[in-house]
Amino acid sequence: MPDNAIHNFQSQFQGGVRPNLFTCSITPPGTQSVSGFEFHCKGTSMPGSTIGNIDVPYMGRQLKVPGDRTFADWTVTVFNDNGMKIRGMFENWMAAIQHHDVNEGVMHPYGRAQVFQKDRAGDVMRTYTVEMIYPTEVAAIDVAWDSNDAVEEYAVTFAVNDYHYDDGHETAGSGKSFKGSVTVGSDGSLNAEAIFNLLG
Q1: Please, what is the end-to-end C-alpha distance for the chain in angstroms?
Q2: Is the dihedral of CA 30, 33, 35, 36 positive or negative?
Q3: Would the pTM count as exceeding 0.90?
Q4: 41, HSE (Cβ side, Cα atoms, 13 Å)
Q5: What is the pLDDT of residues 119-142, one digit of tens each?
Q6: How far apart are CA 163 and CA 70, in angstroms?
Q7: Residue 156 is inside which H or E element, if any?
Q8: Fold of the CATH domain 16-167
C-alpha cells in the first residue's frame, strides 16, 4: 500500500490528542489541593521552558553550547465560583507573600500545580507537575450592567521554578513537601486574614 494512502495516515494518526480533555489542580503552600478547582479551571497550558544558547567563538566560527534553562510563567483561566472562594484563596496567597499596606511577607510562598492530559477514554496519559510556584498576578474582573449571558472569569499568572512530567496519574498531594501553611476560618472558608505560618 502506498505511503500516501489514507488508511496508513489513519492507523498512525489515531485521532490525536484533544486540548479540551484535561483537568488541573492547585495546591497552595501547606494545604490540600483547592476543592472544586478542577471544575472551575476553564483553561491553562502545559508548562514550557527554554534552554539558552552560548555562542563560543573559535577562529571565525561560532560553537553553540547549551546554556541555562529558564521557565516561562504559567497561567490559568478560572471561572469565578459562587462565593468567590477560589479567587479569595489566590488573593490571600498573594497578600501573604507581600502585604497590601506594609512591606512584609513570608519567605516560603511556594505551592504546586498539576495538569492532567486525558485520552478520549478519560484516562490520564500524562501528568505535568509544576513545582515551586507562586502567583504574581490575579487579573481584574470587569463588571457591567450590560454584561448578560456570561460567567465571570479571570486569569492567574504564576512564576515557576521547576516542572516535571510523568506518564499516567499522580495525586495532587504526593511528591515534594512545602514549608508553610494557610490559616483559614473555623468554618473552613477562606478569608482576608489568611496568613502563611513559617515552619522550621
Answers
A1: 67
A2: positive
A3: no
A4: 22
A5: 999 999 999 999 999 999 999 999
A6: 11
A7: strand 153-167
A8: Pnp Oxidase; Chain A (2.30.110)
